[in-house]
Write a structure and sequence with these properties.
homodimer, alpha/beta, 10-stranded mixed sheet, 9-stranded mixed sheet, 30 strands
């Protein structure tokens, strides 16, 4: 695969690199006295120098002869020099930040490249939205490599999304310079049932010689997993059991071990390495999602490498898992993932292999971050108007919009019971009393009215339901981060506050809000597609914190309530979900009525 | 890289594979009760079954549900199932056999794919000759993957070859289906001196997203090796010292450890693995050259894996070195090199990991060899007339052709002294007495007249010289296997026999011969480009044996004399060489006169 993410293609730089290595021309940069983390041979090599020219590595070893008058010499003074870190699977939208601000947050932690799956924006704005994110990314030093979203919509026929992507569009994106493969193929049921749609999408990627990334979340490692891998899926980040990750590697699949802000798989899945004497070349560490607070307080891949070490994986192996192993997974190891001649000069300096504090980061040979601070200015990028005005709801929302007529004085309704910090939900039933001919939330039972508004095409479609598990006693909350269609989701104890919450988000272009008694307690505005904001990680983190306080104020004690809320419409997860089209029984994959006695 | 060497591209097979893995459709083949050599995780997994369909692996594990009425079931009965072996660097011409017969010889030893560099035929017949070899290969089950010869001619300006290949031709071949990269870039001086020609050839390969294979034979691991690797060269099979191979791996270069018929590097270079606790993913085992006798008596990659084990490399690691490591080097690991779902069903069954007897070989799911015998019939392939009539010498050769006029009664001449079983030569001087006004061979001093005839373009060019070291006391020998131009080389004690030897080869279209007193003692006819014959390995081996006897009969006690002889014209090796243009001082790279007192 031709990598277009380097400052200079190797075939343009090779004469100069030869000359620099040979001592006929001075290097741009020489880093001296480093302990090299050699990910090729799994060794620490002492007192190594690295010469850089044209943004690439010309020489590794003794570089005295590469130093000229104009050469910048950096004394590593015994610190550890490693290849820049690569995140093999990340949804930037999960950070709620623009790619530019995301880059500013992660680069100081040693991240030089990400394989991003902009699945969320694609559901809202289609491939045009993906192009915006790529433009945003192109102003940053971060190598933001696209894996085209494979499943838009995620659950066809059960929700209305802003866009729909088929095999033809997938094939088209494979010609994009930034595209290195296919985003996580969540439609594993389609793959396993030999669906043409699923296999055509994978096939379009394979035909282009690019990488198919996976999502196989079943605790099943026999015929299903084999069928999935046999279709050409090369990696998967959905192992939550050690035996799943191990089975994947044994079947030649890259096991991407995840330690994100929301999903902490590593404690369990690291055992596939620590308890087995296996070749670890098929193991990769990824984040999948990263919240601003995590990035600020813990870090990014540096944090995940530390976590891997805490679980007993040796530090060099852990670093291989965010460098060469990832580059080999994407068949981009000729350009990325190792400190070796000809490779991009993407380098991190680490104080020691225990604390793993990243002190310097070079990308394409340029010092890009130092001591936790990004050094490079980025030109501003403004998302176009249509991307920042994505709230297209076909009606004026008032308190009346939320009315659910009652047919009887008491009715039994289906209730989605969410489980804190888990992705699953349960179908429960609750008896509600009619109030003036309408069904209302019943905080005493923790049963809250929930509405999903189609927000992409002004269709006016909306789905009604009830949820349990948030513990809200007053007020309402709303969000446009509502997987995967990202319609407008509103939950509340009363219709007035629900209308306020909905209109607050409509006004600010989407986001997340909590209101109480006619007052907005906190809002995270996400005007870019209703998913992101171009504020800094610090500002985003502050806004999120304020919202979390608001959440607690209205009675919710759940950790990461917006994460749980965001999954309410995700109709590919069991058992009961609510989309703009109505309640979905996600085990039988059919719509079910709100009232249990309806047909 | 898109692999076109599999029976069915994955995107055409994936629906069927999913169905087979899921048990919805029976497999074509199920192999049961195998000890799987898992090269992905470096483990032996017991009692494993493998299901195959469309020539690819559908499932690895328990395959009971994949067996239908028409499924062929093979009980491995506890034998070891490994991926088919890949030879990362081989010149098929070194076997003197056509690709078809070469395939028939190596497949029963477990070889399913070769990365061939048809450098020799390209020097004689150009890219048209390469195409012939690819056509020959295409009738065989062997995956013969082309690396386009990079250095034709090898030493421009010092010899006349049949063809000359520049960056434009290289770029053209990168569009060929069979081409996966560039053949060994022997012009490392050009790379190190930033020569446009050398870098353009490498660049044409990199631009096509393909692999540049290397040849860096200096015992230097500092600036030179760095400069070479920085140019984009991914692998090298020219390490003869342990430290060279180790340095290459540390610099992210695949170290191809060689154990060929002529070059036995493994004893020394295996130490880079056995004496260092390194990650071995960058280590590959290759043959580089393979004579018919070696293939028959010892084997091919199976033999090399055994040799690696003898040197202390554990068997699984050694098998990784001819499977997944090689496939990853060529970025073809998505199709080749492991026993995993979706991969080509290229499989070998091995009796045990000590003796490593290959009992069965499947290629693309078809049983292709069993117990040392190739099972598949191949359609015949006839090389075209122009390929089997490549002797174009611009004069009628008689004894007078070999006359070297003497200017004085005694003359001092330069003599090429060959060193048995080494590639180098030394420049010596000898005093010869004039006989009837001519300089003649002097067997008493072991100084033999040597002539190289241009044989490609009827130019009538010829170079005269003398050699020492063969010990021939009577008769003459000739060969058209004369690196790299493969002109007609004749060495002899008298002009009559030299003429007979030359004309014998002209008549049979090239080859190797030994004559004595007007009688041909033995000839290996190589009518295909003067390099190959389409006889079987057994027949070739017999012919070679007969020629070796003839060689001994005329007084030569040197081991592999034709190997040594073949290097006499190779003007890139020190110190003194003879081409059709004359004697070359290969340290100063200039022509020198035969007589030391000439200017």
């Amino acid at each position: 695969m031709i990598n277009t993410f380097c400052r200079t293609p190797l075939w343009e730089a090779s004469r100069t690199l030869s000359a620099v290595a040979g001592g006929f021309q001075p290097a741009d940069l020489v880093i001296t006295h480093a302990n090299l983390v050699n990910v090729c041979t799994h060794e620490i090599m002492e007192d190594i120098s690295v010469a850089v020219s044209c943004g690439r590595i010309a020489l590794v070893g003794n570089a005295d002869h590469c130093v000229g008058e104009a050469t910048e010499v950096v004394d590593a003074a015994g610190q550890y020099l490693a290849p820049g870190f690569l995140d093999g699977h990340i949804h930037v939208e999960s950070s709620m930040m623009s790619v530019g601000e995301y880059a500013r947050a992660v680069i100081p932690h040693g991240t030089v490249g990400i394989y991003m799956d902009p699945h969320e924006i694609c559901n809202v704005l289609g491939l045009d939205g993906v192009k915006c994110m790529l433009e945003d990314a192109s102003r940053t030093p971060l190598k933001a490599m696209l894996t085209t979203p494979s499943c838009v919509p995620a659950v066809p026929g059960f929700e209305d999304t802003g866009s729909s992507i088929g095999p033809e569009q997938i094939a088209e994106t494979m010609n994009w310079k930034a595209c290195v493969g296919l985003g996580e193929m969540m439609n594993f049921p389609g793959v396993l049932s030999s669906s043409d749609h699923a296999h055509d999408i994978i096939g379009a990627t394979l035909k282009a010689g690019k990488i198919v990334t996976g999502h196989y979340s079943l605790p099943e490692t026999g015929k299903g997993l084999n069928a999935y891998i046999a279709s050409g899926v090369r990696c998967c980040h959905e192992s939550t059991r050690m035996e799943d990750a191990l089975a994947k590697m044994r079947l030649g699949m890259y096991a991407m071990l995840r330690e994100g802000s929301a999903w902490h798989d590593l404690k369990e899945v690291a055992r596939c390495i620590t308890e087995h004497q296996i070749d670890t070349r098929f193991a990769v560490l990824v984040s999948d999602d990263a919240h601003p607070h995590t990035l600020l307080s813990q870090g990014h891949l540096d944090h995940i490498v530390r976590r891997a070490a805490e679980e007993g994986i040796d530090a060099i192996t852990a670093i291989q898992m965010v460098t060469i192993n990832c580059a080999q997974c994407f068949q981009m190891d000729h350009d990325l993932g190792s400190v070796a001649p000809g490779k991009c000069a993407d380098l991190v300096l680490i104080d020691n292999l225990t604390d793993l504090n990243v002190t310097k980061v070079w990308i394409d040979g340029e010092l890009t971050a130092e001591n936790g601070v990004m050094l490079k200015d980025m030109p501003p990028y403004a998302y176009p108007d249509w991307a920042t005005h994505s709230m297209h709801i076909g009606e004026t929302i008032t308190k009346d919009t939320f009315r659910i007529p009652a047919d009887k004085s008491e009715e039994t309704v289906r209730v989605i019971e969410v489980i804190p910090a888990k992705v699953g939900s349960l179908e429960r039933h609750a008896v509600l009393r009619s109030s003036k001919g309408f069904l209302e939330s019943d905080p005493a039972q923790d049963v809250l009215k929930t509405v999903v508004f189609e927000r992409h095409h002004n269709t006016g479609k909306k789905g009604f339901g009830f949820v349990r598990g948030f513990g809200i006693t007053c007020g309402a909350m709303a969000s446009t981060v509502a997987h995967d269609a990202h319609n407008l989701l509103v939950i509340g104890t009363n219709d007035d506050d629900m209308a306020l919450a909905a209109n607050t988000l409509i006004q600010c272009g989407g986001g997340m809000t909590a209101v109480q008694n006619g007052k907005v307690l906190g809002t995270v505005a996400l005007p870019i597609a209703g998913l992101m904001n171009d504020l800094s990680a610090e500002e985003m983190s502050r806004m999120v914190e304020k919202l979390e306080n608001a959440w607690r104020q209205i009675g919710c004690s759940m950790p990461s309530p917006f994460m749980t809320m965001a999954l309410i419409p995700l109709a590919c997860l069991p058992e009961l979900r609510l989309t703009d089209r109505g309640l979905v029984d996600c085990t039988a994959f059919r719509f079910v009525p709100l009232k249990t006695d309806s047909k």
